[in-house]
Amino acid sequence: MLRSFLIYLSKAGWAQRMVTGWKLAWQTASRFVAGESVPDAIRVIQELNEKGIVATLDQLGEHTTTVEEATHSTEGILEILDAIDKAGVKSNVSIKLTQIGMGLDDTLCSENLTRILHRAKSYKNFVRIDMEDTPYTDTTIELLNAALSDGFNIQTVGLVVQSCLYRTEEDTRKLLERGVRFRLVKGAYSEPPDKAYPKKADVDANFDLLTKILIDAALAAESPELSEDGRIPPVPAIGTHDEKRIDFAKQYAEKVGLPKEALEFQMLYGIRRDIQNQLAAEGYPVRVYVPFGTHWYPYFMRRLAERPANIWFFISNFFRK
């Protein structure tokens, strides 16, 4: 019931107009959203870099409904890549394909993705394609494979995979044959029981299995490390705030001999800064997912709706240092 209500609120124009007018609402959201403009986001990344932490920059917004919106979103991502290069910050870019046309016109999406990857390649930067919910999984993987076949290499484009899905192990093993670099997350979308594990314990167990698969693949690829400019990630990027999953990854990597510099941990901006700083101090690459933009209200509400327990998670983290 609560989850459905939060989803409703994320789409309700009247609620957005009301909530975005509250000073307290932005004060809360700004802990987890790096402002509304590219300069705002660049300043946040500079602060992270000063702490030894790199970033991946995400322009908020998805599920565009017109060609004009998809084109505008693409232009925004190109601007991000320009800004990162101009500022010299240690950051790459994360994108959602529904933001640039997937589901609206997949040919348009492919063309927009090609434009983005060409720009990233010219700057020797990296684009991480976020994985959305299961209606888009096959198309997302198809577009990634098409990009790799068109000459974009594994140092230009990578993917996110979700441990909640039954199919992820098979997808990951197939793509590792092409050397793809991954961000591993649990996945927060609401999925049907025929596609996803309904129990948290199973999601966690699959997360650990996928962590082992990625670490083993990194070893087989001679343990590529985070690039000096902070843009090109290692093969495994472990995206979680779950300390048990983090400890498992660290222990398994140490057991099999994977260097710390070849194992990246990723977390959301504003959440568990204590763990971010601790991992960085221990010598692990830490990358923070930095969302920004005027669409912060739908983003914030969807984060809560994806898992209502996040309401307390966000509130408690607001008071963490």
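(the above was protein one; protein two follows)
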Amino acid sequence: MPEAALHVGSGKVRELYALDDDRLLLLASDRISTFDVVLPTDIPDKGRVLTGLSGFWFARTREICANHLLALRSDGRSTECRRLEMLPIECVVRGYLAGSGWKDYTATGAVCGHALPAGLVESEELPEPIFTPATKATTGHDENIDREQAAGLVGADMLAEVERVAIALYRHAADHAGQRGILIADTKFEFGLDEGGRLVLGDEALTPDSSRFWPADEYTPGGSQPSFDKQFVRDYCETLGWDKTPPGPELPDNVVAGTRARYVEAFERLTGIGFDAYLADPEVVLL
């Protein structure tokens, strides 16, 4: 880490450093969280998968929305980024009915104010992708909110623009992923504003941490799906009787290895690049 880099914050996965007044350095660790709790066991190379996939998508979605990426560093887990004023909402797009969206639907018939057809089953593809914002919780869990609540946080005009861009990003990525044998059930984006007030995509993009990735050839609506994301870890934790509060449980070796394999397979399928090739030259994902 350069001596000039000043540590300014820690997230569940990333460490944040200030390089100067305009640039930040984001370092993606191998930590993994479930139910908003960081677990004590790392997943080897997870941070490199997140960084490489984010770089891949950032390079291919610039025409849809500007992003914060300035450079990838040779360690494969660090990105130089422009500073942004981040919006105080999580921007989730759902193409399939899963996770908290499924739970909301079974309780109310709607998801974040979107009334959905009756009779949908778990993991069913929605008629159209829907934008479902959530709060950014500093402690505890993020909570789904409706459009009115989200507009109260960012303004109606900004919310409309965020929704338009988020759905465009999702459609673009879902089309690409579908050609690679992966269904993107849902994904979370974070946006900020640059000093000129322009909307900019930040944080990470379309990774196994921020998305549900399902193998298309195994997709069967009506229940949970096999996945290339951290659902494998969630499912293990659900078997333990853990109350989903800190401290989190240690992960056994088979769960660690299985999770790493799923993350690496998602990377290789989506990018068409061997993971070893990425480790040798991270900038290959930007080409």
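Reviewer note on protein two: Residues 156-179 form the longest helix (24 residues).
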